[in-house]
Design goal:
407 residues; alpha/beta; 9-stranded mixed beta sheet; 6-stranded mixed beta sheet; globular
């Protein structure tokens, strides 16, 4: 037989032998039963909890800027303002503030109302106090134009402060901010109703500022879910200034009169409002949409820091969202709140400020003297805010400091 024929015969024999060995091994394999309906595991689904704190408006009026400036060095230090409330922010797993000013730098001049621009040190003080993220969508975000908007985001990036609501690029606009907090993925979306007549330049108009539009919010919430968000929080700059009750527009957007009107029926779990500069009610809403467990509307948190020393605007709330996740199901199990009072000592120049935590029946501590009128006002703040917020049947209760590991 020619050599080529021998090679072919050997190759066929080897192939047949290999197939035979494979078939024999398959026939002798161990028999493994596959259960069509496997028994449930005795191991419980993993359970985790997290707490997210959100504060109200941070508005650096001119007197506040002057109070933080050292006249000899020209440097700014806002940290003492937050020293008494800082432990209540740092104790949360994640903390959010509404930064109602650009950080456009000294070349743009530091000014208060009506066109704000604050030094970087204000954001640094918030960071040191425990704030992790700033909402930047508000009616003052364009007070220094497009350059001020982009400079603000760059400075927040430098400090390690996350941000949402304004954007440098279309890609940034289309990327939801999702934070993993103790295994619970929380999306933060931010929007504003008004821009005080300012407009971003045409090349950036489509993405620079998130405008409040229900359809867009619903689309953003759906995108955040696709990106893996367990909870969606909408930070909304809305409503009428100095009004202690929400407007009809706020109620329609928040709760909705029909099945598909309210944002809670369109993918949002919690709505947190800013802009009125006074506290408005907190409510739980049970939506009629299948698959939705409802959520919370916090219509306005009032002021966290400002130079508005009149009644109702001299105070605000820190709210705590209590999150739970069991297996793949996450929910907001409740909301607690801490009233805060902006103490203002105008007995010397410059005026000095402190943000003080307020508990019912308890006088706050301060390194500045509390006048008799301030002590009376603090007690009044506790009563005023409790009348708008205390709803234990809806899971809305005052903060228990021990729950955060504080005394």
């Amino acid at each position: 037989m020619p050599a080529r024929g021998v090679a072919r015969a050997f190759a066929k024999l080897l192939a047949a032998f290999t197939i035979g060995i494979f078939l024999l091994a398959f026939a002798l394999r161990p028999q493994v039963a596959i259960a069509q309906n496997p028994l449930p595991s005795d191991d419980p689904a993993p359970h985790t909890t997290a707490v997210v704190a959100v504060v109200g408006d941070v508005i650096p009026h001119q007197r506040l800027l002057d109070s933080a400036r050292d006249p000899r060095s020209g440097r700014y230090d806002f940290a003492p303002i937050f020293q008494h409330v800082a432990p209540y922010l740092a104790a949360a797993d994640y903390a959010v503030a509404n930064l109602e000013t650009p950080l456009a730098g000294p070349a743009a001049r530091f000014t208060g109302y009506p066109l704000f621009n604050a030094p970087l040190e204000l954001a640094l003080a918030l960071r040191l106090a425990g704030v992790d993220m700033c909402s930047t969508a508000n009616n003052h975000c364009l007070d220094r134009g497009w350059p001020g908007l982009t400079a603000t985001l760059e400075r927040l990036d430098q400090l390690g402060l996350a941000h949402t609501g304004t954007n440098r690029t279309l890609a940034e606009r289309q990327t939801p901010l999702i934070v993993d907090t103790r295994g619970i993925r929380v999306a933060f979306l931010a929007y504003t109703e008004a821009l005080n007549g300012h407009r971003p330049p045409a090349p950036h108009a489509a993405y620079a500022v998130n405008r409040l539009d229900p359809d867009q919010v619903a689309a953003d919430a759906a995108l955040a879910r696709l990106w893996g968000a367990d909870i969606v929080v909408a930070l909304v700059h809305w409503g009428e200034e100095y009004q202690r009750w929400p407007s009809a527009t706020q109620v329609a957007l928040g709760q909705g009169a029909q099945e598909c009107e309210g944002l809670l029926s369109r993918g949002v779990d919690v709505i947190i409002g800013h802009h009125p500069h006074v506290v408005q009610p907190i409510v739980r809403v049970d939506t009629p949409v299948a698959g939705s467990s409802g959520g919370y509307v916090i219509y306005s948190l009032g002021n966290f820091l400002s130079n508005q020393p009149w009644r109702y605007s001299d105070s605000g709330l820190v709210v705590y969202l209590h999150l739970e996740k069991t297996g793949f199901r996450a929910q907001v199990s409740g909301v607690s709140y801490l009233p805060v009072y902006v103490q203002r000592d105008a007995s010397r120049y410059p005026t000095r400020y402190r943000v003080l935590p307020v508990f019912a029946g308890q006088e706050p501590s301060s390194d500045l003297p509390l006048s008799r009128a301030q002590k009376t006002r603090v007690a009044q703040v506790a009563e005023e805010l409790e009348s708008l917020t205390f709803k234990p049947e809806q899971g809305i209760v005052p903060l228990d400091p021990q729950r955060l590991g504080l005394r």
